[in-house]
């Protein structure tokens, strides 16, 4: 489930397939984990000797200490960052820049005075009104975050499939998606880095369902 949040509140709530129509601004069978053929230990006839390729895969899995009984990573809540660094729409751009660089992040959700999600701002947005000298702000236009942020912004529910979030990132050319619960409260953030870390460092990962 996705939503689009802007300065006027929630503009849309619905499925991924409905998102392309919002432009103001076949279920697949689970893929079996590699190296498994459905046979369990037992009858030797049902477990023929491993080929060299199969033996290599088995050794790789032992090296990673993969727990077969552990469920795959599927949902946003499993990879999101629960501690969300946000900035306010009425913050000065210099303050927002220092927040991003100080926290070593490349974008941050933007909230209004009441804490409601209204947009997202990135380093690229801020650099349109900042001049840097050796990484330090030399001068800046008198602008607020609201003047340079992207709004409205697409957000997702904690139970949203990771593959669908990745699809939104590519389709909308965004580097992150805020995660919002049923009460429209921001509870996390999923960045491209979070998706990549899940793919690289935390198998088994099941994105294709």
Would you kindly provide a brief summary of this structure?
With 209 residues, the chain is of the alpha+beta class.
Sheet with the most strands? 3 strands, antiparallel
Radius of gyration: 22 Å
CATH architectural label:
Roll
CATH T-level fold name = CBS-domain
What is the number of domains? 1
- Give, in spatial order, the strands making up the sheet with the most strands: 2-1-8
Topology:
Elements (H helix, E strand, L loop, with lengths): L1 E5 L2 E6 L37 H13 L11 H4 L7 E2 L4 H11 L3 E5 L5 E6 H4 L3 E4 L2 E5 L4 H4 L4 E4 L5 H11 L3 E5 L5 E6 H10 L8
Task: Write a concise keyword list for the protein shown above.
alpha+beta
Can you put this structure into words, describing what you see?
With 209 residues, the protein is α+β, with helices and mostly antiparallel strands. It has one domain: Roll (CBS-domain). The chain has seven helices and ten strands. The strands form four sheets. It has a three-stranded antiparallel beta sheet with strand order 2-1-8, with no helix packed on it. It starts with a strand and ends in an 8-residue tail after the last helix. The relative contact order is 0.21. About 11% of the residues have low confidence.
């Amino acid at each position: 489930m996705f939503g689009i949040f802007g300065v006027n509140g929630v503009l849309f709530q619905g499925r991924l397939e409905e998102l392309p129509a919002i432009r103001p601004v076949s279920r697949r069978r689970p893929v079996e984990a590699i190296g498994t053929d459905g046979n369990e230990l037992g009858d030797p006839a049902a477990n023929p000797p491993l080929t060299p390729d199969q033996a290599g895969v088995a050794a790789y899995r032992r090296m990673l200490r993969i727990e077969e009984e552990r469920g795959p990573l599927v949902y946003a809540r499993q990879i999101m960052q629960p501690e969300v660094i946000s900035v306010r729409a009425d913050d000065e751009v210099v303050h927002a820049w220092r927040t991003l660089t100080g926290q070593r992040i490349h974008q941050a959700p933007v909230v209004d005075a009441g804490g409601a999600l209204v947009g997202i701002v990135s380093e690229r947005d801020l650099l349109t009104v900042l001049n840097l000298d050796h990484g330090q702000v030399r001068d800046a236009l008198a602008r607020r975050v609201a003047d340079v942020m992207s709004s409205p912004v697409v957000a997702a529910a904690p139970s949203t499939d990771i593959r669908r979030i990745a699809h939104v990132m590519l389709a909308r050319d965004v580097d992150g998606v805020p995660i919002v619960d049923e009460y429209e409260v921001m509870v996390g953030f999923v960045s491209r880095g979070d998706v990549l870390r899940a793919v690289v460092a935390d198998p088994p990962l099941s994105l294709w369902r």
